[in-house]
What does this fold into?
Amino acid sequence: MAGGRCSWPGGVGRVVVGLIVASGALLNETARAVEPPGNPQHVVVYREPGRFAGWPANHGIWIWGDEILVGFSRGYYKDRGQFHHIDKEKPEEFLLARSTDGGATWNVEEPQPPGALAGTRGMRHGLLPPGMPDEHPTKLETPMDFSAPGFALTIRMENKDSGVSRFYYSTDRGHAWRGPYQFPLLGQKGVMARTDYLASGSRECLAFLTASKPDEKEGRPFCARTTDGGLSWTFLSYIGPEPRGYAIMPSSLRLSPTDLITTIRVLDPPRSAIDAYASTDDGRSWSLLSTPEPDAGEGNPPSLTRLHDGRLCLIYGERKPPFSILARLSSDRGRTWTAPIVLRGAGGRDIGYARSVVRPDGKVVAVYYFHDRADGPTRYVAATIWSPMKP
It folds into this structure.
């Protein structure tokens, strides 16, 4: 699964065993974007006039065969200039969208009021944002089973100012959720979590998070581990040096029992890039591997997944003209990358935050938020289904 994935052992899709060599290779910045082969299928996941729907990367995506579940935020549209066009003075909701046909059609699932699931203490249908009645994070007392067939975990920060994060988990493919539970600070000034984890057994899991810097601003990515089903977490390592700006929102894969790769959204003036880091010791240390995207405009988080033939696939939004949803492929475990592949042109900068999965038939399903010139003042969640070109 992606954006939580259980990749070793028993992960979805083909596991690639091999050593990552940190070469620091850069893609040629003059490489021109290319159109994808065939005709990518674009579908609407959720759209409602006058609404803002966005940020799947913050919530997570999970896949069980042809069943896909993705989280996203819904609010009200408001033109805020160079910011996300969501009205901060109106409520924001956390919703789920589910497809049972590989992403072709979607149904939105809305949270139910507290107590809707009578007799199931600590469980809710859906995910409630901070500040809801009867919504107080508590300490996890029963360990999670990361190997449960319908397991899903989402880890979210309350907001950028609080530096506090919480998590929910489900064992029935996201129909009911336990939580919220407190995520520890692990010696950091703050922890700004978005959902990215790799489970490697019934009780062991790595979480990829962002810490506050000494100035209490976001952030520096790091890796944490639990070996007791989430009852306790330990700080494992920082990923990369502390930036002058920020390095946030990891998207990670396990390539073997010891080899990991993660991609990071970086704004380190004058750079606005996506960097890839490699670990050959199961997350204890990291080295710069490559820079898949040297210029992402205003920046956008990456979504990293692995194709059935072993290649890596990176999907992200480009926040500079001509504004697009892009993909890049790597045949050498992230050392070098293809020129950007244009999956879809957009109407402006308020796009991206993708999460992606690979279906059993090998097609990639990328979910992101989007707007186009014909849509007017609406931000909606869309998906693109496509077949990456063969090497």
Notes: The chain has one domain: 25-386. The first strand starts at residue 25 and ends at 26. Residues 5-31, 113-125 have pLDDT under 50 and may be disordered.
